[in-house]
Amino acid sequence: MDIVVVGAGYVGLVAAASFASLGCRVYCVENNENKLKQLETDTIDIYEDGLQELIQQGIRDGRLSFHPKLSDVLQSAQMIFLCLPTPSVKHGIADLSSLLHVCEELGAAIEQDTLVVVKSTVPAGTTARLERVIRDAAARHGRQVDFDIAMNPEFLRQGCAVQDFLHPHSVVIGARDNRAADRLARLYASCLHNPVIQIMSPVEAEMAKYASNYLLASRVSIINELANLCEAVGADIASVRNVVGLDPNIGNGFLNAGIGYGGSCFPKDIEALIKTANTYGLDVPIMRAVQSVNDRQKQRLVAHIIRRFGNDLAGYRFAVWGLAFKPGTDDMREAPSLDVIHALSALGASISAYDPAARRKAQMLLEGTSVEMAADKYEAVLHADALLILTEWEEFYEPDLAQLKERMRQPLIYDGRRVLKNAQCRTSRVELIQIGAGRDH
Ligand code: UGA
Questions:
Q1: ipTM of the predicted structure?
Q2: Neighbour count for residue 105 (Cβ, 10 Å)
Q3: Does the C-beta of 325 come closer than 6 Å to ligand 1?
Q4: Sign of CA dihedral 149, 153, 158, 159
Q5: Residues in domain UDP-glucose/GDP-mannose dehydrogenase C-terminal (predicted)?
Q6: Which helix (H) or strand (E) element contains residue 40?
Q7: Which tens digits make up the pLDDT trace of 396-438?
């Protein structure tokens, strides 16, 4: 099967490289010149386990190629996957301009029998709108094209995106007619191992994607609110979570308490869902609460620090371990670490930060703040009054506590991701303050 993937962003690159590894011939279109140059020399600007190798393999095998213009490759394939960004522009309104632009182009040029597949996360009704845009553009060019369109949301997680693509929990296909759905279902059935394929309408597929992220994010806000309550009553959220997580009706996923969710999906998607609801005159108080609990949670460690050090942090030095919004990625979009660092910096603190992958991206975003980037985790804690752990990278789980004590001004750790063991810290006489761990438990 020959396919075109439009957009070499996160979803596009993973989809293109994975389809190529599954035997498809993939033409990936990217109009950002710098990105394209990098891709042509086999490098990517994304830190994602296994992705670079898969791209190199695809290029070597002659199954994956990158192109600046859609028009150059349009005739090469009968399936076109649209993997373009839909960032939030204002109060949750999704910016659909890249998608709309490409659909105009498709209307002017696609041949009969093309299947257009929308992979971007888009608000309810967008797939139908894109179909109209393609049809209108075709009519303006005096063409009558008989194409199909399907919505096929992607459920991959950063850090294990390739694995998620190759082994999805389900493949969702939203299409108005069987012909489109069957074509896409056949592609997935031919290259994935026993995929669970769910066929529905385009608007249901659009909603399913938002619903999934909303439910996951709401679990994070619920466990974080419970964690704060556990702190107040002297309980440990870890014990509580272990109990509720074993109830099969609850399950234990997405119940890790911390400093709030971030990333390019949850914050944007919940905002967009609220916007959609409001457009239809619906108030959605639970969605709004998920969002506001998360906003507050990002300041939770800062509140602890103010209680201890006061409002004026001039002269104090804080070490930060972990900047990326989650481990396994260098993505800094909506990372809670940014909120924490901006708040501490505004109170006059000096900060030394370390992240195994996100240093370069973080440095650009934190220009103008009092942050210095450290080369490793022990350099970061030098002369620090406290250490804050903000991302649960594996290398933070069992640090050399003796070395920390030697380097820090005082052995005090704020663990925002519950990576350290209380007993070990107690034995080493390191003071540990963890999200969700009451002092008396
Ligand atoms: C999320 C969803 O998990 C994917 O299913 C979805 O496909 C993707 O968004 C998307 O829409 O593209 P991702 O943003 O990569 O994936 O990251 P998650 O692992 O879901 O984590 C999101 C945030 O929630 C992170 O900041 C993480 O630290 C936080 N989180 C997650 C918690 O604080 N506690 C948890 O128990 C789980």
A1: 0.98
A2: 17
A3: yes
A4: negative
A5: 319-422
A6: helix 33-40
A7: 999 999 999 999 999 999 999 999 999 999 999 999 999 999 8
Q: How far is the CA of 329 from the centre of ligand 1 (A)?
A: 12
- Alpha-carbon gap, residue 155 to 209, rounded angstroms: 7
Sheet strands side by side (includes 317-321): 371-373, 350-354, 317-321, 386-389, 412-415, 431-434
Is residue 255 within 6 Å of ligand 1 at its C-beta? yes
State in Å, rounded, how far the first CA of the chain is from the last one: 59
Which DSSP category does 74 fall into? Answer: G
DSSP state of 110: P
Q: Can you list the domains of the chain with their CATH numbers?
A: 2-199 (3.40.50.720), 201-441 (3.40.50.720)
Secondary structure of residue 211 in the 3-state scheme: helix
Q: Give the separation between CA 412 and CA 404, rounded to whole angstroms.
A: 9
What is the value of pTM for the model shown?
A: 0.95
Residues across the chain: 441
Is the Cβ atom of 419 under 6 angstroms away from ligand 1?
A: no
| Positions marked active-site | 265
Q: 378 in ligand 1 pocket by Cβ < 6 Å? A: no
Name which residue sits closest to atom 19 of ligand 1, judged by CA. 157
Coil, strand or helix at 351: strand
What does the pLDDT average to over 284-313? Answer: 98
How far is ligand 1, taken at its centre, from the CA of residue 266, in Å? 7
